[in-house]
Predict the 3D structure of the following.
Amino acid sequence: MAQTDLYKVLGVDKKASHDEIKKAYRRLAREFHPDRNPGDTAAEERFKEISAAYDIVGDEEKRKGYDQGRMFGGAGGGGQGFGGGGFDPSGFGDILSNLFGGGGGAPGGARGRGRPRPERGRDLESEVSLGFDQSLSGVQVPITLTLAAPCTTCSGTGARPGTAPKVCPVCNGRGIEAQSQGLFSMSQPCARCQGSGTIIEEPCPTCRGAGRTQQAKKLRVNIPAGVRDGSRVRIAGKGEPGRNGGPSGDLYVLTRIAPSPVFRRKGDHVEVEVPLTIPEAVRGAEVEVPTLDGRKTLRVAAGTRHGTVQRLRGEGPPVLGSGKRRGDIHYRFLIDVPAALTDEQSELLDKLASTMDGDDPRAALFAGRAPAGETA
């Protein structure tokens, strides 16, 4: 990625907002995630590229440094990159912090000799599919993550077992070089060690000196009761391991909930459509309705109209993050009009209609009409 524009990797403009960058990353990460593309090495490499790009431009401090670095022909600017060599996106934040005043102690903001600062691991995101009942009761689900973790062969040093990284002889472990530019002196990442302060003379045969490898990790995570379709559940410390003793990132689990054939989610509540016969709606009745835990009997008032909603308080889904509080169940009554009548039903309906002659339910629609010959 020495000459790659990280904004182009994520498909966003260099002036994109943080939210726009985050949205683009999530969309691409879901599309190219190894779990969705098993055995597809091209998708896996694309996923790594997307993750590395977001690790920089998705972090406001790193992005600021990256944008400043572009002005000096740095990575993403189409130049030769820092030092003209390879570019490790995960260490770019350290390089920029040295170049633009990060860290402390040594001139130019350099780190202490041979002591790179701890770096927090990246946050990860995964997606799980749940049934409607599972979303109400909570469930433990298995998840497989592909993440960059310390190489097990070299224990994360990047050096062949039995050897160790050495202090860079050019910058003496500072990670930066000072160059005189007439009246000015400018510090830039060391061309020999790429700003790390150390060099690896004998790279690890497994990770080739990177100190990290892509590894599959299996977890079982608890999804709390009450999640909705699209909820993001944070699992602290289960993201990518940090570098140089830094803390791990977090894991965010996105939930996809299968629809219920009976209940429709309405925020903290659920709604059920309950058909009523014409006699039940006219005279009133007691009808059985489904609940999330079984059945109950509701009293339907006489003269109930089509679309009337009756509420059953506190018997809806658990409200996520509120302890034991639950939402409501809304029962929407729909008048079930038969498509065809028997001869007997038709005769009885004629008798009912004859008793109601003279009652025009639409009379109110015309009560305010304009006089003849005038326009309303």
